[in-house]
Amino acid sequence: MEDKRNIQIIEWEHLDKKKFYVFGVAMTMMIRVSVYPFTLIRTRLQVQKGKSLYHGTFDAFIKILRADGITGLYRGFLVNTFTLISGQCYVTTYELTRKFVADYSQSNTVKSLVAGGSASLVAQSITVPIDVVSQHLMMQRKGEKMGRFQVRGIPEGQGVVAFGQTKDIIRQILRADGLRGFYRGYVASLLTYIPNSAVWWPFYHFYAEQLSYLCPKECPHIVFQAVSGPLAAATASILTNPMDVIRTRVQVEGKNSIILTFRQLMAEEGPWGLMKGLSARIISATPSTIVIVVGYESLKKLSLRPELVDSRHW
């Protein structure tokens, strides 16, 4: 009899693709709604000089809530929802790459590493223009300017950014930088997210495997996976946060050089500046990763081809 501690990975060829995409879009939207406020807070913390506006994640949360209400935590959210497209491209690329790499290596670590990096490359190529616009919208504060651009005439009490304000930001980016402006920070994004994704997947499977041996055989696999996700996310966040800070500054402040941005950050704030926003990143990553992992693994189980359901042990 098969050892139930052996966590079986559902591969691309095992899935009913129609179910996989329909359930996947719904799941991704719910996750984005839950974690977006912390993404906004992280962006503001990373862009501010020192502690000029906020003294930390909780302080930023309270000040934004007081100034703009709950809708202030969702500035730029409507634009950000377009990244649903990149999300589906990400999972498709990940699963197809795993299938391709399996022809050359049966090592799960190798498959996860290559597939995670490849999926991030494809997703970032779609996401960066959306991120650039969304981040500038995140930086809008009543009566104050944090980024390069200022939306004209934000009505008092209006928190959710309308598409009219999005158009205003797009026009300002085009005037200032042309089409290249929408890919500002593209290289920095690749240097941030490709390693993050490439590291996350192997650590995720590693932690799940180790936990499966530490826990009783009767413990459901989804429990190992739910714990492994945040552990992998925290590991990847610590390793890649310095590049994430630089990426955010390049995109929001309109800088042209990763190296010059790094030097300026070091001169102004020292090595500690490279860890700015890390707590917000981990705080946002922990619940979101639990939801992502449980959702994604459940999604794959729900999308499993009917003839394979009875052959799996969860």
From TrEMBL:
Topology versus the membrane: Multi-pass membrane protein
Catalytic reaction(s) noted: L-leucine(in) = L-leucine(out); L-valine(in) = L-valine(out)
Cellular compartment(s): Mitochondrion membrane
Keyword Lyase listed: no
GO BP term, pick one: regulation of cold-induced thermogenesis
GO molecular function: branched-chain amino acid transmembrane transporter activity
Any Gene Ontology CC annotation: mitochondrial membrane
TM ranges: 20-41
Solcar repeat start-end pairs: 18-100, 107-210, 220-302
Gene3D superfamilies associated with the record: Mitochondrial carrier domain (1.50.40.10)
UniProt keywords, alphabetically: Amino-acid transport, Membrane, Mitochondrion, Repeat, Transmembrane, Transmembrane helix, Transport
Alphabetical list of InterPro entries matching this protein: MCP, MCP_dom_sf, MCP_transmembrane, SLC25A44
PROSITE patterns: SOLCAR
Pfam families from the UniProt entry: Mito_carr (PF00153)
Alphabetical list of PANTHER family matching this protein: SOLUTE CARRIER FAMILY 25 MEMBER 44
Record-stated family: Belongs to the mitochondrial carrier (TC 2.A.29) family.
Function (record text): Mitochondrial solute transporter which transports branched-chain amino acid (BCAA; valine, leucine and isoleucine) into mitochondria in brown adipose tissue (BAT). BAT is involved in BCAA catabolism and actively utilizes BCAA in the mitochondria for thermogenesis.
Name under which the protein is recorded: Solute carrier family 25 member 44
Gene from which the chain derives: SLC25A44
